[in-house]
Design goal:
The chain is of the alpha+beta class and 814 residues long. The protein is built from 18 helices and 26 strands. Strands 14, 15, 16, 17, 18, 19 and 20 form a 7-stranded mixed beta sheet that branches. The protein has a 6-stranded antiparallel beta sheet with strand order 3-2-5-11-8-9, covered by helices on one side. Helix 7 packs antiparallel against helix 8 and helix 9 crosses helix 14. It is rod-shaped. The relative contact order is 0.06.
Length: 814
């Protein structure tokens, strides 16, 4: 084929159409003479052809692309004619077309050898369908001049690459290599990259490292883009396919560049936000370009911009490699640089149009980059896992060591606890023994003082006796506090819940503590709020009275100026009503650091010298224990220098209280026959002296047998009257107890006698035994008023006034 025919063809195009076609035929015949005759065993590549569009005929260089004007009606058609001359005899030949982007009918010497023009407006061929290897039957080939004609058609554009003609055996490798490079290779690359991307995303799910997410999403988008490019049919119809294809390409570039920035330690917030907006901006931009008919030029400019963006990622990787200066950094830099260079090469090839179905190198460079980065990330993950395993082993060893230390510490704590329990038992034993030994003389002293009070004394003697009685009362208060603690430790304090009225309790406490407040020149106020009739408190009234009594005693004791307020109010909704008893004072207050410690045993604020006039520090400890035992909420609010407020909440009930039985009934005890059994001569003598002053007749003995002997030998005429009461101490000589003595007397009398246990013991075991006996109990030193009240109650319940009864007081030997 002669290239000089182009000028003649241009001249023919300026002549009338009929003459032009005639000249075109002459030109074609002349050009065939200039085509070099080649042996058919060597492929011949045809790069020049005559293109006839129906309106004009021109000589074109292949590949040739044709786009229809905006005013043209589809389909777009063009006929390409090429001539080739063979000198050898005819033999089987084939055509290899690497880029046929058109719906075409192919004729060789006027014979149809391939027809893909069933629908001229169908989508242009894609993927493997663009690459054609067409056999030419031997009967269609002749020696000398041969004419190849391609009738192309498309919707708005079409393109045809150079055509190679030759033996099939020589063209088949060309076809295979082209299919492998443009279709199979990118498809395999897409599969590998997608697998790596999924692995990275799984690692991101496990480790939550943003690097894995960026790389995984970018690599997955790259794989999808490559797969989309090699699909034989478009994924979306019309222009949508091209627009979303570009958007996906933009997304994978953005993700991988962002990964490079993060991997290199660059944090460009604004630039990253700009990158993240590019995929979304691509959609409206390319839809607008498609509507304006300028899609190709906008696409080329956009892809060039993405190459520049990729260069930014390359700069980040270069910085990382320079800082690391190791093999991984060098390989990463090399693969990133190759990827950017290949992207620039692909853009240049696409822009120049030297190949209408080029082999793009970006997928292969991307595969190398993805494999290397995935290996580095996986290696980093494995290194982190190994480090974590090492840390776990170290942690397990440290935990084992700490566990061994903890076991040793627990053993030490267990030994310390055993020592503490032993010390506590020793303390309890010591307190019990000391309490008992101290209570004995204090009890005797109290009896003698009570006997002196009723005697004829001078004013000076009366003052002395009152001072002695006050000191004994203070000692009694301390003993009772210790006894309460011991009783609660022994579990001998059992609440007896019942309904009771609060007003009598409040008035009784106010009456009891008013003299104490007056002595200290304090104002004691009582505020009892009005409340609906029929509402009472539900608790143990004796324990509640003990709690409020302790609170009032403390308030009066530690308040120097101002006053103390005792209030009782009803609080809460009808469904959750409760009584709120509060004790306010204007004392020094309690610092916040001490507000919890004041409830501890033996702890006193501002009394490091342990002033005996300030007590033992057990009052609030008993309050806390009793409120916890009753299940009532106890609260403290205090401000230093302003005073304190203690509050106690009691359940509210509409049950009616039982008629109270007076614990200390009043009445005469004269003419009562009282037997005192005591192995301590001083206590026995003091008790006999006191009872005689009350008008009682007393039988005093060291044990139950001696009392019975005295009773039978008594000189009184009414001695035959049965015994009616027993007062007994718990601990006796020779291992006997008051419980045993009471049982002996009851057996001798033949009926149950009223009995009272008097004890100076405070050990939990003995208190529990006394509580289980069911007998009335009093602790030493016994207050004479309580003892007389109990005797009067016995006389009143017996219904006799003149008949004798026996009160047996059994006390131990010193």
């Amino acid at each position: 084929m002669h290239a000089g025919g182009v000028a003649l063809h241009e001249l023919a195009g300026s002549l009338p159409r009929g003459i032009g076609r005639l000249l075109l035929g002459l030109l074609l015949a002349m050009s065939l003479c200039f085509v070099a005759a080649q042996a058919p065993q060597h492929p011949i590549e045809l790069k020049q052809a005559f293109r006839d569009t129906g309106d004009s005929v021109s000589s074109v260089q292949l590949p040739d692309s044709l786009t229809a004007p905006a005013t043209a009606r589809p389909p777009l058609r063009a006929t390409y004619r090429m001539a080739v001359t063979f000198d050898s005899p005819p033999q089987p030949l084939a055509l290899f077309i690497p880029g046929m982007l058109t719906n075409a009918r192919i004729l060789f010497n006027g014979h149809l050898i391939d027809d893909r023009q069933d629908d001229p407006l169908a989508a242009l061929p894609r993927s493997i369908n663009r690459i054609r290897l067409i056999d030419i039957p031997v009967e269609f080939v002749r020696s000398g001049e041969n004419l190849l004609q391609v009738e192309a058609a498309g919707g708005s554009r079409l393109s045809l690459s150079p055509v190679t003609i030759g033996p099939r055996a020589l063209l088949a490798p060309l076809y295979d290599r082209r299919v492998l490079a443009t279709v199979v290779g990118p498809a395999l690359v897409a599969v590998v990259i997608a697998s790596l991307a999924l692995c990275m995303l799984l690692l991101w799910v496990r480790q939550r490292d943003a690097l894995f997410a960026y790389f995984g999403l970018g690599a997955l988008a790259m794989a999808l883009h490559n797969a989309w490019s090699v699909l034989p049919k478009p994924l979306l119809p019309g222009v949508h396919n091209a627009v979303w294809w570009v958007a996906l390409y933009t997304f994978f570039v953005v993700m991988l560049v962002t990964f490079c920035l993060r991997f290199a330690g660059w944090r460009w917030g604004r630039f990253e936000r700009l990158l993240s907006a590019l995929p979304l901006a691509a959609l409206p931009l390319f839809y607008a370009a498609s509507a304006g008919g300028d899609f190709a030029s906008v696409q080329q400019s956009w892809l060039l911009g993405l190459v520049v963006v990729a260069a930014v990622g390359l700069a980040a990787v270069t910085r990382y490699a320079w800082r690391q200066r190791n093999a991984d950094g060098a390989l990463l830099l090399m693969t990133a640089a190759v990827s950017v260079l290949f992207a620039a090469r692909d853009w240049l090839v696409n822009w120049r149009g030297d190949d209408n179905n080029p082999i793009f190198l970006v997928p292969y460079a991307g595969l190398g980059f993805a494999v290397l980065v995935a290996w580095m990330l996986i290696d980093r993950f494995v290194a982190a896992s190994q480090q974590l395993k090492g840390l776990n082993r170290d942690l397990e060893q440290r935990v084992s060591a700490k566990s061994a230390e903890l076991v040793r510490a627990l053993e030490q704590m267990r030994a310390a606890r055993d020592d503490a329990e032993h010390a506590n038992r020793s303390k309890t034993t010591f307190l019990a023994a000391a309490s008992h030994d101290l209570r004995q003389p204090a009890h005797a002293l109290g009896l003698y003082i009570a006997a002196l009070v009723d005697g004829d004394l001078s004013p000076a003697q009366q003052d002395l006796v009152q001072r002695m009685n006050a000191s004994l009362s203070a000692l009694d208060t301390m003993f009772n506090a210790l006894l309460d603690i011991s009783r609660m430790d022994a579990g001998a304090v059992i609440p007896r819940q019942r309904a009771f009225a609060l007003a009598p309790l409040v008035h009784r406490l106010a009456t009891e503590f008013a003299p104490r407040a007056a002595e200290r020149r304090l104002r004691l106020s009582v505020r009892m709020a009005c409340f609906p009739a029929g509402l009472h408190a539900s608790s143990d009234p004796l324990l509640v009275e003990r709690i409020v009594s302790n609170l009032l005693g403390n308030a009066i004791k530690y308040t120097r100026d101002g006053g103390v307020l005792l209030s009782c109010r009803l609080r809460g909704e009808p469904a959750s009503r409760h009584w709120l008893i509060e004790v306010w004072d204007t004392g020094p207050g309690i610092a916040e650091a001490d507000q919890e410690r004041v409830f501890e045993e033996f702890y006193q604020v501002g009394n490091p010298e342990r002033d005996r006039t300030a007590g033992l520090g057990l009052g609030l400890s008993i309050v806390r224990r009793l409120s916890a035992l009753l299940g009532h909420r106890m609260a403290l609010v205090s401000r230093t220098g302003r005073g304190s407020r203690f509050s106690l909440e009691l359940p509210c009930t509409e049950d009616q209280p039982l008629h109270p039985v007076c614990d200390e009934p009043l009445g005469s005890v004269g003419e009562m026959l009282v037997a005192v059994i005591d192995d301590d001569p001083d206590v026995r003598s003091g008790m006999q002296l006191l009872l005689n002053r009350w008008g009682c007749r007393v039988l005093a003995g060291a044990d139950a047998a001696e009392v019975l002997r005295l009773w039978r030998a008594a000189p009184w005429p009414d001695v035959r009257t049965p015994l009616q009461a027993v007062i007994a101490d718990y601990r006796l000589a020779a291992g006997c107890t008051g419980i045993d003595a009471i049982a002996t007397l009851r057996a001798s009398c033949g009926h149950p006698l009223p009995a009272l246990l008097v004890s100076g013991d405070s050990s939990p075991e003995q208190l529990a035994l006394m509580q289980a006996s069911g007998l009335s109990c009093m602790s030493k030193p016994v207050r004479p008023a309580r003892l007389r009240g109990w005797l009067a109650g016995v006389a009143a319940s017996a219904g006799v006034r003149a008949g004798p009864s026996i009160a047996v007081v059994i006390q131990e030997r010193p």
